[in-house]
Structures are given as structure tokens and as C-alpha cells.
């Protein structure tokens, strides 16, 4: 397959890498970039396990090609958190609310929550439910996940009105 140079920002760092532009983004991020938090679930954009933030929006990376990120910005779970290694507000809220069980869906859940709260820091309960609806979890009820996102929203000072 023909390789091209793909230049983009990955988790706050500018990168330039040779890659097959037609490789699925989920595979490119895991195999070529070592971002193991990006997981394939359904391969059809339905489960949210492969969710990343692309140019500020939560997207399913199984439905994108590596070449599409040229000039853009991608955030994976490896790019979330504080520089000193501490958890950010969303990660901490997921822990405190008990919103994780097996952990397979957790990276996608956290990235969907981050994308929402970055663009809408005062998200309402219903807006949070809607934003998280693209992420499936087979282990737990969604109430703790929604609670965790609300806790993170409040911790960031954006309590809904």
C-alpha cells in the first residue's frame, strides 16, 4: 500500500508519520501510534469503544481513515489527565462515582464526556445523557456514568442551571 506523510496533532504534540492513508484510524492509532486506549468494539460506529476527540468533536475512529486526520487534532485517553500524571476531573469523577467496571468502554465514555464539557461546560442532565448515548456499556447501568459526568461538570465549576 502506498504510504504518505500524515501531519497532525496527537494529544497535544505535533507528529509527522508515514502511514497508509486508507488504514482505519482505530488501527492506525493503536498499531502505528501506540494509543492502546483506543479499542475496537463493533467496527461499525455503534458502540463508542473506539471514540476519540477529533478537532473538538467525539468521533468513532473505526469509521475514519488515517489520512483524514491530516492537519487536524486527535485526543485519545492517553492525552487526558494532568501533566503530573494525576487524573483530570472527569477521570476522577468516574472513579469516585464507581462508573467503571471492566473498563473496556471507559476511554470512549471519558472522551465523549470531555468533548461535551469542553464545548458545553454547563451541560444539563439531558444533554449529558444524549452525549453519552453513543457509548455502550455491557457491565453497568448508565446512572453512575451520567452521575460521574455531572460530578465532573460541577468540579469544573460548570453546574447546570
UniProtKB/TrEMBL annotation:
Asked if the Swiss-Prot or TrEMBL record annotates the protein with the keyword Metal-binding, the reply is yes
From which domain of life does this come?
Bacteria
Q: What InterPro entries does the annotation carry? A: 2Fe-2S-bd, 2Fe-2S-bd_dom_sf, 2Fe-2S_ferredoxin-like_sf, 2Fe-2S_ferredoxin-type, 2Fe2S_fd_BS, Beta-grasp_dom_sf, Diverse_Oxidoreductases
Outline the extent of the 2Fe-2S ferredoxin-type domain: 4-80
Is Iron-sulfur included in the keywords of this UniProt record? yes
Instruction: For this UniProt record, give its keywords in alphabetical order, as a comma-separated list.
Output: 2Fe-2S, Iron, Iron-sulfur, Metal-binding, Oxidoreductase
What is this protein called in UniProt? (2Fe-2S)-binding protein
